[in-house]
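Worked problem 6 (solution included).
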Amino acid sequence: METVTVVAAVVERQGRILLTRRQAGTHLGGLWEFPGGKAERGETLEAALRREMKEELDTDVAVGERMETTEWEYPDKRVNIVFFRCTLRGEPRPLEGQEMAWVSREDLPNHELPPADAALVERLSRL
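Solution. The predicted structure is:
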């Protein structure tokens, strides 16, 4: 099974963390997630994250520290997710019809995120 490299942005503003909801009919549809997406071949992780944020939320980000890396195997694919702390350079605006929410750290566990995000969600909700 091929491993897909995924990048995700952890954006915090005024004590709340940005989440988006995956579209119904897609892999893990209906679940909340840290925004981001697949890195393309030959693309740096930082460039991939900036591209994905522009495509999905019409905003640029300053990519900061790497917060966590998680490998996870789903029945249909294996993913290597790299989470980066990011700062927005503009106001996010969903371009793909997805829901977007600013969620407090304490409320993170009340949103259904993919199992691969569980360790980071637990860590963030304890801080």
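Discussion: The chain has two helices and seven strands.
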